[in-house]
Amino acid sequence: MNAELALPSQAAEHVARVLRMNPGDALTVFNGDGYDYTATLIAVGKRDVTLRIDGRESVANESPLRLTLAQGVARGEKMDLIVQKATELGVARIVPLFTERSEVKLEPSRAEKRLLHWRAVAASACEQSGRVRVPEVLAALPLQAWLDSLADDSVQRLALLPEGTLRARELRFGEAGGLLVVGPEGGLGDRDIAALQDAGFAGLRLGPRILRTETAGLAALAALQALHGDV
User: Fold this and answer.
1) Which pLDDT tens digit goes with each residue over 150-196?
2) Checking DSSP bridges between strand 178-182 and strand 67-72, what pairing results, if any?
3) What span, in angstroms and rounded, lies between the C-alpha atoms of 222 and 224?
4) Beta bridge partners of residue 183, listed in sequence order
């Protein structure tokens, strides 16, 4: 310990301008490796903040239910909301998907910027919620490409569908956890559903009401965590 380091610009600005902390003040930081680090501020400038790491403490607040949310890319701030709240709900991985009815199209340069932005949203949500492991956020890719990349394992494969027959309380999860696919604003198309069925995904139904894309996945995650996780 006793290592000195500079905070990233966004965190430095928060410490200096929002919290108005001073040299000698104590704070807790994390880097996503499963620990909280106690630290002491050494220097606080307008743009640069330096601290000394004094110790570390293991934090065991990750959900025992390992879930991947494969979300059809939603428009505008909806996707930010989904990434933020899914992180707070303990999701282990987020996969943005382009599906049959996707309205969002991303050029390569813009796709890279959006990926970095979503990862920053997830990291910020970890800070707010006390998580010390940042969920993995993958680059957006077509549904079929993602399906082709999946390993042949025992993970529970689920797609959120109004016509689904499975209920959350009926599910049983092993150590591998589960994959949950949620469509974009227009829902999953017939080709999407056929591809998911071919890949072994079962239809999960939350109830009699049709939920918006920014509500559906989060409601499903909350239900699964309450029934099978640690909520």
Assistant:
1) 988 889 999 999 999 999 999 999 999 999 999 999 999 999 999 99
2) parallel
3) 6
4) none
Give the model's pLDDT for residue 1.
67
Helix axes 77-88, 213-228, angle to 10 degrees: 10
Q: How many CB atoms lie within 10 A of CB 124?
A: 17
Q: Give pTM, 2 decimals.
A: 0.87
- Ranges of CATH 3.40.1280.10 domains, the chain: 67-228
Q: Which fold has domain 67-228?
A: Alpha/beta knot (3.40.1280)
Tallying the residues shown for the chain, one arrives at 231
Helices (H), 130-212: 143-149, 190-198
d(CA 74, CA 183) in angstroms, rounded, equals 9
pLDDT digits (tens, 9 = 90+) for 60-115: 889 999 999 999 999 989 999 999 999 999 999 999 999 999 888 888 788 899 99
Architecture of domain 4-58: Beta Barrel (2.40)
All CATH 2.40.240.20 domain ranges in the chain, comma separated: 4-58
For residue 186, give both structure tokens: 């227009």
